[in-house]
Structure formats: C-alpha cells, structure tokens
Design brief:
It is a single chain. It contains twelve helices and seven strands. By secondary structure, the protein is of the alpha/beta class. Helix 1 (15-29) packs across helix 12 and helix 6 (109-115) crosses helix 7 (134-142). It is 44% helix and 15% strand. Bound molecules: adenosine-5'-diphosphate and magnesium ion (MG).
C-alpha cells in the first residue's frame, strides 16, 4: 500500500476535491483498491462518499484506542474498491485527548493502525485539515508521499514554507521515507499572475510542480451539491478531465520513482 497525504495549511485549495478525484480515478480507471482516510473534522470527504455519521466509528476511535477494530472503523462505499475511514467533529476532542495522553507515542498512531490493513489496499489517500496539528503530523508520519494542492491567488503561498519545514522535520525525525511528491495547481483560470505564482513555487519552494493544472470548472459546484465525485458527475468537465490527466501523470512519476 502506498500512502499519500494531500496537504496544505490553507483551506479552500481543493485538498478534498483532489483526494476524492484521485480515489475515484485510481479505483475506477486503474482498478486500484483505495482506502481514503478523512483526516479533517469537517468530514467533507466522508460526506462525498456517503459515510459521514455519528453512529459509526471514525478516525477519532483510531487515534484514541490502540485496539480499535479496523473492520469497524473502515466503511465500505457504494463505489467498488473505495473504502473510507470517516471523520466527524469528534476528531476535535480526540486530538486534545491524544495531546494529553503520553502513555504511548502520539505521532505514530495512524501509521500503526494503517499498517494493519496495508495488504488490503494499493493506495491510501489521506485528506487533511488546513492545519499543522497532531492529526496532520500523524498523517505525514504514516505517508510515503505528500501532494500539495495550491490555488494561485494573492495569499497562495502563506504557510507553504512552514509546511515544507514540517515535512522535512517529519522526514528527519520520524519517517525517513517521506517524499514531497509535488505541488498541484488547482482552480486554474489562466489569469494574469498565475504564471508568476507558478514560477515562484518552482524557485522558492524547490518542489516539483505537476505539469497538469486543474482548471476551474462550474460543474464542481453541482457535483458538491449532489455529493458526487466530479469525474462521476461530469466526466467531460474541464476539472474532471484534468484530474484524470493528473492521476495519469502521478502514476507515471511513481513509476520513475
Ligand atoms: N477546479 C475547481 N473548479 C471549481 N471549483 C473548485 C475547483 N476546485 C475546488 N473548487 C471549490 O473550491 C472549494 C474548496 O474545495 P475543497 O476541495 O473543499 O478544498 P479544501 O479541502 O482544500 O478546503 C469548494 O467549494 C470546491 O467546490
Ligand atoms: Mg477539505
């Protein structure tokens, strides 16, 4: 199982849309078995896949209970080969409890849990909250790679240096295998300034930028009202086509290593 964190300290940069689109493309186009980890208390990923609930277990249970039963926590979805570890607002108090419980390591809990199901999936995609907190640190510790969605606007680069530093610290101290796979430009509108922003990224962040840009598409709003992955909702929309191209580019880059 290859584990990928979709991460950025900013909200609204398409972390969730990217996670959902990657999960859909990998499972439906490439027949990969995908485990999606919703690591954001907002639970948007869980909602899109129809598994948001307060009646079932969620990632909060995994963070708190060493003996949590993964078979109880992992939810099957209506999509073949997509399972989800859902999140809801209980993750907020769970995070505080993890911080207070030093009886066992705090940063490796997700990794320990995911290792138990590593043989069941080809990819694990972790959708993160716009924060550096104990949940996102757990995600980076559990990941082989990080993909950073970036929406280029005047504040686009806030937090990117901090995120890169966090990735480096995690690599040095807890997860030597962690790789910054690349930045993915999302909500692309061919506006003046976007190229300058992209150049800044390449020069200042020293991070690969995927060739594929995800174009802005009005269809995305409709897909979110219907709680459907954009590729399912409108396969011909610009965003859906770009996400399919991105996944193809992502897989080619993986093969190159
Ligand atoms: N390519 C796109 N075209 C149109 N709207 C988009 C696109 N990407 C993201 N959005 C919109 O931007 C908002 C934030 O996306 P989301 O995936 O929830 O970001 P995040 O998880 O980073 O907060 C949502 O309303 C989403 O519908
Ligand atoms: Mg989100």
């Amino acid at each position: 199982m290859k584990t990928v964190s979709i991460i950025n300290l900013k909200g609204g940069v398409a972390k969730t849309l990217t996670t959902v689109s990657m999960a859909y493309a990998l499972s439906q186009q490439y027949n990969a078995r995908v485990l999606v980890v919703d690591n954001d208390k907002q639970g948007n990923c869980s909602k899109t896949f129809g598994v948001h609930s307060y009646d079932r277990q969620s990632i909060a249970d995994l963070m708190l209970d060493r003996d949590a039963d993964l078979a109880e926590v992992i939810q099957h979805t209506k999509y073949d080969r997509i399972d989800v570890i859902p999140a809801n607002m209980t993750l907020l108090t769970a995070n505080m409890q993890v911080m207070m419980d030093s009886s066992r390591p705090q940063q490796t809990r997700l990794r320990t849990a995911l290792r138990k199901v590593a043989d069941l999936y080809d990819y694990c995609l972790i959708d993160n909250a716009p924060d550096i907190n104990i949940s996102t640190v757990n995600a980076l510790v559990a990941s082989d790679e990080a993909v950073i969605p970036v929406k280029i606007d005047s504040y686009a680069f806030d937090g990117l240096i901090e995120l890169k530093n966090q990735i480096e610290i995690t690599r040095e101290e807890l997860n030597p295998g962690l790789r910054l796979a690349g930045c993915l430009i999302t909500c692309f509108q061919r506006q003046a300034g976007e190229q300058t922003g992209e150049d800044w990224l390449r020069e200042n962040l020293d991070c690969p930028v995927y060739k594929t840009h995800i174009r802005y598409s009005g269809k995305v709003v409709g897909s979110s009202f219907e709680c459907k992955p954009i590729i399912e909702y409108s396969k011909t929309s610009a965003a859906a086509r770009d996400y399919l191209d991105f996944v193809s580019e992502f897989l080619t880059a993986e093969k190159r290593g």
